[in-house]
Amino acid sequence: MTDDSPASGAPIGRAARHAVRPGHLLDVSTGETLTDVALVVEGERIAGVVSASDLPSDLPVRDLPGHTVLPGLVDCHSHQIGEEDSGHGYTELLTRTGAQEAMSGVRNARATLEAGFTSVRDVGTYRAFVDVALRDAIDAGWTPGPRMMVAGAYVSCYGGGGDIAGLAPDAEHLVPAELRVGVVSTVDDVRRVVRRILYGGADLVKLIATGSVMSDNGDPGVPELTEEQIRAAVEEAALHGAHVAAHAHGAEGIKRAVRAGVHSIEHGSLMDDEGVAMMAESGTWLVADIYGGDYIAEIGRRDGWRADVLRKNDDTTQTQRAAFEKCLAAGVRIAYGTDSGIYPHEFAARQLAYHVRHGQSPLDAIRSATTRAAELMGWQERIGRLEPGWYADLVAVAGDPLADVRLLEDVRFVMKGGQVVRPLR
What we know:
The chain is α/β, with parallel strands linked by helices. It has helices at 98-114, 130-139, 187-199, 227-239, 251-260, 273-282, 292-303, 307-330, 351-357, 362-368, 371-377, and strands spanning 17-26, 33-34, 37-42, 45-51, 61-71, 73-78, 117-122, 147-150, 154-157, 183-184, 205-208, 244-248, 264-267, 285-287, 394-397, 413-416, 419-422. The chain has two domains: 17-72 and 385-422, Urease, subunit C, domain 1, CATH 2.30.40.10; 73-377, Alpha-Beta Barrel (TIM Barrel).
């Protein structure tokens, strides 16, 4: 999967000092596109950004002529574990083992990385802690994949969007315990479950604050956790230095989550003007999957997805995009997140064009998936920029992504931590 044969012909290993010399380099901080520049890489990190004409003659160089290099992309709302959604609810999880879920994660992580996403915030899996295992396997070098920040399991009410619902009452006992680690009823349950998830190795907490589009039952507009429960999760997570992401479609659920102090609202599909103003004032992040509705409508109707899923998708797609535009106008902090897993992970860059279509400049869309995403994750001093000390995570495209952001749907080269994971093609 790696290519250690640079233009100079000398082999390049991960620990070696070498250089990458592109045709252009997009500085996402300033918005400038630079020429005659090279990145000096040492081990996993960028050691310097220098004039290409000043490179030492004995330094191995990997040339990317005619290509623009920019930081590796970041998806703040990814689901690396599991099969692509079938549109028939989540009782299908009972037909797969934990081992099968883990192996699907291996496949998805590879596809995500090769699509140019070198880091992800994975916001939950029904089968608890499989994402933790995948993160650790990637970090150990056992399997290729992006850097992962993981949620471990969903925190959800009984029968809610993070529970396995839709079974006959006399079949409830068949649901394995690992599929219900995060199911809660009381405030005390929330505190216990948050501790369980973080002690199990998760990096953040993911709440299902309202109903879901894709679940077996429930209404996206209906709150599923109380404000007291959400606040308990935020307080408990803070004790462990972790943030809370709230899946919230409905207006009331969004406002409960913002008042309770969550770090980010995921989806935000039915947000009202009051919710927009609250998010802008509080600094709460929005992570909105504004491409996914088109995919669900097209593929779901083609493949016969459940009628209630298609209806809920139709009810939330355009309202979500309107909310995105209002949040943008109000100065709400926006980070890139796709809900990949609903659709194939190799499509994760398709949403960038939707950010532009709904009000962002190409540069701001790219920043939402680089500097802004890194800031949301608290990783702003390690990823999201091409600067000395940051990880040598970068992608290259054939052309100018500021002129056509869709070029990022077809990255031609990917490096993660100084190692080529997708050679120039």
